[in-house]
Amino acid sequence: VLYHGTTLDAAHKILREGLKPMRRRWVHLSPTIEIATIVGLRRTKNPVIFEIDVEKARKNGLKFYKATDKVYLCSYVPPKYIKRVL
């Protein structure tokens, strides 16, 4: 699994539309809840943390790339692979 930290406002849209790269080329994901929390804290005091079911997504053709030890990339994550954990 991978994780994504975001704001509460963005969280509602993500659950409806999935994770999109927005102004970036890629969706950025984290390998741990702790790292995703640090990322989320850049934008809000109370980040929402999502868990991404990478195994299921890969079985359905999505590709994930390891950019660094703390950053994984994907072009798009549909809502069916996303669940809120915090």
Secondary-structure map with pairings?
Blueprint: E1 2-6, H1 8-17, E2 27-29, H2 33-40, E3 48-52, H3 54-59, E4 65-66, E5 72-74, E6 82-84
Antiparallel strand pairs: 1-3, 2-5, 3-6, 4-5
Return residue spans where pLDDT drops below 50 for at least 5 consecutive residues.
none
Major sheet: arrangement of strands: 1-3-6
Average of pLDDT = 97
Oligomer kind: single chain
The fraction of residues in strands falls at: 15-25%
Give a short account of the largest sheet: 3 strands, antiparallel
Element-level helix/strand string: EHEHEHEEE
Distance N terminus to C terminus? 15 Å
Counting H and I runs of at least 4 residues, what is the number of helices?
3
Overall radius of gyration = 12 Å
Helix content: 25-40%
**Shape category:** globular
Q: Which structural class do the helices and strands define? A: alpha+beta
Please explain how this structure is put together:
Helices cover 28% and strands 24% of the residues. The strands form 2 sheets. The chain has a 3-stranded antiparallel sheet. It has a 3-stranded antiparallel sheet with strand order 2-5-4, with no helix packed on it. It has 3 helices and 6 strands; from the N terminus they run βαβαβαβββ. The model has no long low-confidence stretch (mean pLDDT 97). The longest helix has 10 residues, at 8-17. It has 86 residues and is α+β, with helices and mostly antiparallel strands.
